[in-house]
Structures are given as structure tokens and as C-alpha cells.
Amino acid sequence: MAFELLTPDEMTEADRLTIGAGPVDGIGLMRRAGGAVADLVLSRFASAHPVHVLCGPGNNGGDGYVVARLLVESGVAVRLFATGVPRAGSDAALAAAECPVAVEPLSAFAPEPGSLVVDALYGAGLSKPLAGEVLAAVARTVEAGVPVVAVDLPSGVSGATGEVLGGAFKAAVTVTFARKKPGHLLFPGRAHCGEVIVADIGISDATVVATGTRCLENDPAWWRPLFPSPANDAHKYSRGHVGVFSGGVAATGAARLSAMAAARAGAGAVTVLSPGAALAANAAHLTSIILRRSDSLEDAIAFLDARKPAVLVYGPGLSPEPEVGRFALGLMSHASGRFGALVLDADGITSLSHQRAAFFEAAKRPMAPALVLTPHHGEFGRLFPDIAGDPSLSKLERARAAAAKANAVIVYKGPDTVIAAPDGRAAINSNGTPLLATAGSGDVLSGIVAALVAQAMPAFEAACAAVWMHAEAARRFGPGLIAEDLPLALREVVARLSV
Ligand SMILES: NC(=O)C1=CN([C@@H]2O[C@H](COP(=O)(O)OP(=O)(O)OC[C@H]3O[C@@H](n4cnc5c(N)ncnc54)[C@H](O)[C@@H]3O)[C@@H](O)[C@H]2O)[C@@H](O)CC1
Ligand SMILES: [K+]
Description:
Layout: H1 8-21, H2 26-44, E1 51-55, H3 59-73, E2 78-82, H4 91-98, E3 103-105, E4 116-120, H5 132-144, E5 148-151, E6 173-177, H6 182-185, H7 189-193, E7 195-199, H8 205-210, E8 215-217, H9 220-223, E9 241-245, H10 253-264, E10 269-274, H11 279-283, E11 290-293, H12 297-307, E12 311-314, H13 322-333, E13 341-345, H14 346-350, H15 356-363, E14 370-374, H16 377-383, H17 385-388, H18 395-406, E15 409-412, E16 418-420, E17 426-428, H19 441-454, H20 459-477, H21 485-498
Parallel strand pairs: 1-2, 1-4, 2-3, 4-5, 5-6, 6-7, 8-17, 9-10, 9-12, 10-11, 12-13, 13-14, 14-15
Antiparallel strand pairs: 15-16, 16-17
The structure holds ligand NAX and potassium ion (K).
């Protein structure tokens, strides 16, 4: 599986294990890394003249010296600008010694029309914000508008967090090695990487696994084997029954969006649980979705006892008041034997910020339902203010910390949605689209998650699949999308996943 993401530390470990196992040594890996970048330059930027290779003092710079040598050997006009000198005896020093191109100081670098910049200043070893002549080189490159090929990462982008430290190159193409890094997928770094190409430099799949990485790029390739398909003898309830709680008379649409999405994502039966005052509003807009009155926890429990739905969705169209959170806690304490999982979204999450401790305690009880929380940034900050307020944590680390704290699968939404499980597994989504930045799209997502869990897909994989399907449906529909379009747009996505 090639979807693992390696943090810079894990990548260092992969290098170490590979070199330790032999026969390739450090300079051998560096020659392969530089060779992959040179191949890319020759195939994609054949007319670039000259190529300006910018080299830093570490191994990223070492890759740059290899690139410069190989390009010169291929007849390309190359100028090489360096900041700092590779440490004596290092692989980078060896690469520099093999490079026939004269070294000019970085301060002399000025992009020329028609040129290409190869950014080999800093990669995995970025340790502080860009400053001084490096920042000036970034500014001159942006001003000149010349294309940039970044080696491993655009200098200034943290491979671990996607943060931009001080400033960063904006690459047309980034060539990284063995596997992508979280910083290629997390914003703002992702916006600096351009197209990301992963070059094989001889680090084996087994070595990648041996680093202990527990983070994946979200992709159907690894969750599709768990994607549900109905058994030949299925009936509507065996295909998974989802219950969705509706808001009051002026806020019923969100639950219906969620319910429709659940039905389109394969739930055999979906029930909207509506306050009496909103029954008529819901009834006017529902056909295949079952409608049931529910004005109290007792009403809800009566439904659970009678129908034993697999999954409940609680949040769309509700309000952030404490009683909404108390109702969620009530559902959780009556889950055992009645329903298997609870998807909390929107104000179902915000309302619990009034009773955080009770919620976290309830989530850890042995008989608690499986939980999936789908917060956007604001909701995340309200339920997990300590985690959200810790500037040392990346979005990936925040999602993981929240998943452990709430004993829940966390879908931390955004352009770079992170899905994290309480056991430490995580995924970063990469097919997101700004088309999803539209009212009601989150309600649809919660319905998809619920439907997949109701069809017995494990919660983490279901959440990953739902996030991917949601974005894929939006992409297929295209511009003009509103949330109402998403459930029908899911049809084709489900059909393709089901073959
Ligand atoms: N054998 C290996 O380990 C391999 C490493 N590879 C390359 O090696 C890179 C990692 O090399 P390193 O660990 O040496 O790290 P880097 O080359 O990314 O940077 C480390 C050096 O830059 C300095 N530095 C970091 N940030 C700075 C800043 N903002 N301003 C000024 N100086 C700064 C550090 O003090 C250190 O001297 C990868 O990104 C990849 O390109 C590849 O060649 C594949 C094989
Ligand atoms: K770089």
C-alpha cells in the first residue's frame, strides 16, 4: 500500500533502516533522489534555460548538487547558488564534491526570463523560519514568476505540519521520496506544493511499515474492501437503519439533507425523528424517509426500543443550548442494546461544550455507542478548547488528541479534512473541493457516515469513505452545486465503489 504518509522523523528512520539493510548507502539514496528530480526537470521543463539550482547546507542541498551535476551531464545550462556549506564527510559534501558546477552565493541569485528554479534549500530538516537571503530569494522568485521544482518540500513548508515558517516557495511540482509527507496535504503547505510526485528511491514497503507510521492519505484503495454491498437476501432493515433527529419547525431542512444522504449512501431505512411542532413541515418534504414524532428522550427511547436503528445522527438543525447536549448524553446512556453508533455534528457538538467532562466520561463507558464527531474548525474549538489552543499541534495531531480524549472517530473538517481514530490511526483527505463550502454540505456528510456505519463498515473506515465520497460527489456535480444536489450526486459515486 503506497498511501502511508511519513513525517520527517519517520522518513529519517526509513532512510536509516534502508541504509542499515544495504546495499545502498546514504550517497546512493541521494543520487537516486537527485536523479528523480533531474528526470522530472528534463521531461517536464525541457526548454527551461538556464536552470537555477538553489542548494542549502544539509542533505536537501545534497540532492540539489546531484540534480545540478546530472542536468549539466545532459547538456542543460545550469547555475548553482548555495547558502551554507555541507558538513565535511556528509553525503551532501560528497554530492557537492562530485558536482562540476561553480558555486555562487545565494545572494547573487536572480531569476531570468525562461529559467527554472530547483529549490533544494531545506526539506525534512527545516528547523526555523526562513529569513534573510533565503526569504529574499523566495521573494525574487515569486516576483519573476518563474516556475519552481521543489526537492522533497518547498523550502519553508514543514513536512510534519504543513505550516509555512517565515515564507515558502510556491512550487509547480514537488518531487518527494518514498511516500508523501503530512505537510504535502495539510494547508497552508499543500497550496505551496503544486503537483506532488512521489519518486521511488528504493525504500521498501516493509521499511515504510517498520517506521510505525499510522497515517494514510485517504483513498478508496485501502477502504474499498470494507465498502458495504447489500446481501442478496437483504431486507430494508438489514441494510442498515439510520435515525436522524430533526430541529424545530424553522430548522428541519438539515435533518432531511442528512436523511436523504444516508438513504443514497445505502441505508435501507431512514427515520426522521421530528418534534411534533415540525411534523407537518417534515411530512411535506419526505416521501421514502420514515417520519416519527419525538418530543422527548422518552419518545426517542420508545423509538429505539421499537426499531433498534443501527446509527443515530444528532446535530443538524439543532441548537447550541445545554439541553441539546444533555439529550445527547441521555441517548448515550440508553444506547446499550438499542443502537450501535452515534454521529454527532454541528450543534450536537457545540451543545456538548457545556458538559465536556460528562461527555468525555460517558464516551469512555464500556456500554457507550461508537461515536463519530464531525466538527468544523469552530465546533472543534468549542468542544476541545485546550487542544485547539495548543499552537505546537498540527491539525493531524489535534484530530488525534481529540479522538483519544473523546474516545471517538473525529472528522476534523476543512479543505484538508483529517480523520482520526481513538487508537491513533489517522488519514488526511486530499480530494476536497471548495464546491463543498456551501450551507448544508456538512449535514449531508453526517448522513453518509451514518449510512456506512449502519451497513457495518467500521467507524474509522466509514468516516474516511464518507469524506472521500462527499467530495467526489461534489466534484462530479461541479459548479453550481448546492447541498440538495449532493445526495443524488452520490448515486454515481456509490455505483462506482460498488462494482
Ligand atoms: N540519506 C538521507 O537521509 C536522504 C535524504 N534526502 C534529502 O535530505 C533532506 C533532509 O536532509 P537534512 O536532514 O540534512 O535536512 P535539510 O537539508 O532539509 O536541512 C538541514 C540543514 O538546514 C539548516 N536549516 C534548517 N532550516 C533552516 C532555516 N530556516 N534557515 C537556515 N538554516 C536552516 C539546518 O541547520 C541544517 O544544516 C530531505 O528533505 C531530502 O531532500 C534524500 O537525499 C534521500 C536520502
Ligand atoms: K526544498
